[in-house]
Amino acid sequence: MCTRAGFNLIKLLSSVFYLGYSKFLPGTLASLAAFFAYIFFIRGNTAAHLSSVLIITSLGFLITDKAEELFRSKDAREIVIDDFNGMLAGLLFLPYSLSFGLLGFILFRIMDGLKPYPICKIDKLKGGIGVMGDDLMAGLFVNIILQLLRRLIV
Prior knowledge:
The chain is an all-alpha fold. The chain has one domain (4-153). Helices cover 73% and strands 0% of the residues. It has helices at residues 4-14, 26-42, 46-71, 81-90, 98-114, 119-123, 127-153. Helix 4 (81-90) packs across helix 5. The radius of gyration is 15 Å and the shape is globular.
């Protein structure tokens, strides 16, 4: 059984430091926070970027089942660690660029909103696999699109 401190930590992390509690588009705010983390903290450091995605992915899979219980809802709107992580994953292994970052943000929000196949199938899975998996897949789609654009432009 989790302690009150454990519950609070799960809420803090799954909501990305309470961004998920926003009444105004919490998933978009978490994606925007990831964009700012990419621009101001990761700054083209591939090792830091990859490490961040791996750590947040692992953490997300560990806590989202319990977060759903705490928020009493499947993929509750307060849970935005998946949006934060999917956005970061969408920019992985790309050249550091404000342009790629902005385009990645826009594409990620479109993919996350439209949920094309197979994202829609993953979204229906229960627990952390569904919560984290659909946004990771959306991030992968965004990454593939941006990698292709990069090669077409260069």
